[in-house]
Amino acid sequence: MAAKLILSMDGLVLKEIPLTKERTTLGRKPHNDIQIDNLAISGEHSVIVTILNDSFLEDLNSTNGTYVNGQPIKKHFLQNNDVIELGKYKLKYINETPSQTTAADFEKTMVLRPDLMKKTAEQVAAKPPSMVDTQVGMKAVDTQANLAPPTQAAPPVAAATPAQAVPMGVIQVLTGANAGKELELTKNLTTLGKPGVQVAVITRRPHGYFITHVEGANFPVVNGTALDTHPHELKDHDVIELAGVKMEFFLKG
Fold first, then answer.
1. Residues 69-78: pLDDT tens digits?
2. Whole-model pTM?
3. Cα 186 from Cα 142, distance rounded (Å)
4. Which of 89, 114, 199, 204 has the most other CB atoms within 10 Å of its CB?
């Protein structure tokens, strides 16, 4: 059953909106998927990105802000019965399908920002395990029991772990200040890019890895071809161009 929003004002339900698209935009201008014709709402106010059974709300630098359950947010992992507030309007998020992703997975995903990537591996190692972030060239401590531990160097003849249906995906940065750094895609959902410029999400599914455009006027480029709004399955040694950075996706046997 698809997630949906219930739009109301002053306790009066106006309509239900099923979240059937990967990107659902909210704002005052007519081109939005959910148009709210009210001066308190910005032209492009916020967007909901839906991947598999999960939805993520992002404020698009709106004038009056986006609120969830009374708290201002910039990005928020939506959970069943969350109430989004845009001026006098409320949108109740209904999703009765169990999520495969936790809010922590979304909040701790890696972003290719230079200020985050100046940390050395030694600095990260000095943190308590609970504070280790997922960043390029650094392994995160993952407490999810259903994920296989990071693979260690092993002879090429070593058999794949039975529980690992798909080999571990890895992103290696090819250009820029972080060239050569690697990120193991151990999370169900990993964010790449520069907020406000271009952002994409790589989802780890039972049958492979998929990249989906999330934010930015330009779409990610894979092997020289720009993507569209649909998820794109990544193949071994695909070259991704995102936010001015080239990176290679490969599978670790």
1. 999 998 888 9
2. 0.48
3. 8
4. 199
